[in-house]
Amino acid sequence: MVASRICHSDEAIRKGDASLGYPVILGHEGAGIVEKVGSEVQNLKRGDHVVMAFYADSLCNKCLKGIPTQCRHYAVYNLSGTRFDGEDQFQEDGKHISDMFNQSSFTTTTVTNQRNCVKVDEDVDLRKVGPLGGGYITGSGTVFNILKPRPGQTIAVFGTGAVGLAAMVAGRISGCTKVIAVDIVPSRLELAKELGATDVINSKEEDPVEKIRVN
């Protein structure tokens, strides 16, 4: 493991608002370098740089329709605390330790599946791309797969963290002529403009709903 982002999902489990069973190794937006591969691994080799995401089986009707985030067995594969075959991913002194998203990236070294991994170029800074496996696909996937804006439409995104910025970028890619970013942090709004926002609103200083209606 080279780096892993901390997500609200990790925090919810840490606080006890959700549980995979304790003890648990969290982390589900990791990036690292492959050290070893199993005999059946076909797409990766030692030394490859990868970003890790969730596991989907590629066999159910949702996966076959190209919607792996809605995999029929998503919960079993990612949120059961064990591997998809029901065996422990981690143990200590023979006792079960729960894993998260079949990657548990808050580790020095982890074990995962080739279906969790996306290979990236070696010149990409792995410290910066971990969120692509979680926050980015959450934000962009919501826009591409659910909202499905058409060219010429307007999209407004409230909150310009990793998820919000990904949604905003997806809006631009979809052809929205107005992409409105709403936040209370000026530096975030500046970043939103750099990434393609046509309009920004500081909701600490003005009513965002009224301003959006005017736009």
Quick summary of this structure?
The chain is an alpha/beta fold and 215 residues long. Helices cover 29% and strands 16% of the residues.
Structure, explained:
There is one protein chain. The chain is α/β, with parallel strands linked by helices. It folds into 2 domains: about 5-130, Medium-chain alcohol dehydrogenases, catalytic domain (Quinone Oxidoreductase, Chain A, domain 1), CATH 3.90.180.10; about 135-215, 3-Layer(aba) Sandwich (Rossmann fold). About 30% of the residues lie in helices and about 15% in strands. The chain has helices at about 10-15, 60-65, 75-80, 125-130, 135-145, 160-175, 185-195, 210-215; strands spanning about 5, 30-35, 50, 90, 95, 115-120, 155-160, 180-185, 200. A hairpin with a 2-residue loop joins strand 4 (about 90) and strand 5. Helix 5 crosses helix 6 (about 160-175). The longest helix has 13 residues, at about 135-145. The radius of gyration is 19 Å and the shape is elongated. The model has no long low-confidence stretch (mean pLDDT about 90).
SSE layout:
Layout: E1 3-4, H1 8-15, E2 30-33, E3 49-52, H2 61-64, H3 74-78, E4 90-92, E5 95-97, E6 117-120, H4 126-129, H5 135-147, E7 154-158, H6 162-173, E8 178-183, H7 186-194, E9 199-202, H8 208-214
Parallel strand pairs: 7-8, 8-9
Antiparallel strand pairs: 1-2, 2-3, 3-6, 4-5
Spell out the key features of this protein.
215 residues; 2 domains; alpha/beta; single chain; Quinone Oxidoreductase, Chain A, domain 1; three-stranded parallel sheet
CATH superfamily of the largest domain, please? Medium-chain alcohol dehydrogenases, catalytic domain
**Count of helices?**
8
What strand line-up does the widest sheet have?
1-2-3-6
| Secondary structure: helix percent | 25-40%
Largest sheet: 4 strands, antiparallel
Number of domains: 2
Order of helices and strands: EHEEHHEEEHHEHEHEH
Average pLDDT, all residues? 92
Strand content: 15-25%
